[in-house]
Design a protein that fits this description.
This protein is of the alpha/beta class and 402 residues long. It has one domain: Aldolase class I (TIM Barrel). The protein is built from 17 helices and twelve strands.
Length: 402
């Protein structure tokens, strides 16, 4: 073959100069295309103890691995030759339309991950049309979150305190601030043994030790933001100094039974969901005592280690109460396809916690935007590749566990 010199006109289409964003957050997030990408960036952006608090689970972390392994065992069964040009990702939960079938889960100590914490996450949720859940252990108050995201759908998460009057006061504040539903967490009679926190010596607020001083040198922006904003504390508590586990064991009531749900049902007129249900018997009891919904959850693997994966118990619970209550699921969700699998097996929607917290640590409010966008795009693409045109068409024929 005769060789020749290439012409510039032939080279020119091959050159695509990349625009380098001037904004450092934009540059950083530009490298994140998945939730695990955000996780890697988050690990570099915050002190180790902070990342481990978010990333870690109880004891040997078997529960968390099981939850994620269950999603890895999912086998999809796609159907071909369907018009999936415009998939409908919306669903209806407790009578309200959700643009995407997931909400941001309640997370504690969120301003530790990023100084804007719950306020940044709530604003991102509002933009995306996603429900935001505020934890009793949150670091922004009920009223601050309501003011930051006045148009967002908001749920309030409650633990049953030994001081019932204090708990009732929180309910009244949440009602006055426009929170639509109450999430009662029922899997925390005592604090789980979160060994990463124990080994890191994590306290609230973080204590200055030789290790944290060294960490400050390699994470100066995080420490600058911590020290130049309001002191880090739980917004629903007047003051606390110690570990999270010590707080749980001091403040929360381990004597709570289903009889207490009756008291709570009388005190809260809106929708009530019980978070931390794990068996069909407890699901039936929750509905019998007035719960409008349940969340199948192992608390992100942060309470009882070696519990079964929520995805594996979901079909049994859906068969038991699926026609009587809304079923949601959390723990281990790292991909939009995980959400599709849960919906196919009987959940109405999911809660995501770590996924959006990785985004928060990686890039603040923009990082939460990115996490929601990633999960939403993955979910829509999964529907299309399954040959499913809407959430309503998902069913057990689309999924099996390998």
């Amino acid at each position: 073959m005769r060789r020749r010199l290439p012409r510039w006109s032939e080279f020119q289409p091959l050159f695509h100069p990349e625009r380098i964003p001037l904004n450092s957050t934009e540059r950083r997030l530009g490298r994140a295309h998945t939730i695990p990408d955000l996780r890697k960036i988050a690990a570099r952006r915050v002190p180790r103890a902070v990342f481990d608090y978010t990333d870690g689970a109880a004891e040997r972390e078997i529960s968390l691995r099981r939850a994620r392994n269950a999603f890895a065992r999912v086998e999809f069964h796609p159907q071909a030759l369907r018009d999936v040009s415009d998939p409908d990702t919306s669903t209806t939960v407790l009578g309200r339309r959700w643009a995407l079938p997931f909400a941001l889960a309640p997370t504690g100590f969120t301003r530790m991950m990023h100084h804007e914490g719950e306020l940044a996450a709530a604003r991102a949720a509002q933009r995306a049309g996603v429900t935001f859940s505020l934890s009793t252990m949150g670091t922004a108050s009920i009223e601050e979150v309501a003011a930051a995201a006045p148009d967002a759908d908001k749920w309030f998460q409650l633990y049953v305190w030994k001081d019932r009057a204090a708990g009732k006061d929180l309910l009244e504040r949440a009602r006055a601030a426009g929170y639509e539903a109450l999430l009662l967490t029922v899997d925390t009679p005592v604090g789980g043994a979160r060994m990463r926190d124990v080994r890191n010596g994590l306290t609230v607020p973080p204590a200055l030790t030789p290790a944290t001083v060294f960490d400050a040198a390699i994470h100066p922006i995080w420490w600058f933001n911590l020290l130049t904003t309001e002191p880090l504390s739980f917004a629903s508590l007047s003051e606390w100094r110690g570990t999270v586990a010590e707080l749980v064991n001091t403040m929360f009531d381990p004597t709570v039974t289903f009889a207490d749900i009756d008291w709570l049902r009388a005190a809260w007129a809106g929708p009530l969901l019980l978070k931390g249900i794990h068996t069909a018997a407890d699901a039936r009891a929750a509905v019998d005592h007035g719960a409008d919904g349940i969340v199948i959850s192992t608390h992100g693997g942060r309470q009882l280690d070696r519990a079964a994966a929520p995805l594996e118990v979901l079909p049994r619970i859906a068969d038991a109460v699926g026609d009587r209550a809304e079923i949601l699921l959390d723990t281990g969700i790292m991909h939009g396809g995980d959400i599709a699998a849960a919906l196919a097996l009987g959940a109405k929607a999911c809660l995501v916690g770590r996924a959006f917290l990785y985004g928060l640590m990686a890039g603040g409010e923009r990082g939460v935007d990115q996490a929601i966008g990633i999960l939403g795009a993955e979910f829509a693409r999964t529907l299309q590749l399954l040959g499913v045109r809407s959430v309503r068409e998902l069913n057990r024929s689309h999924v099996s566990l390998r």
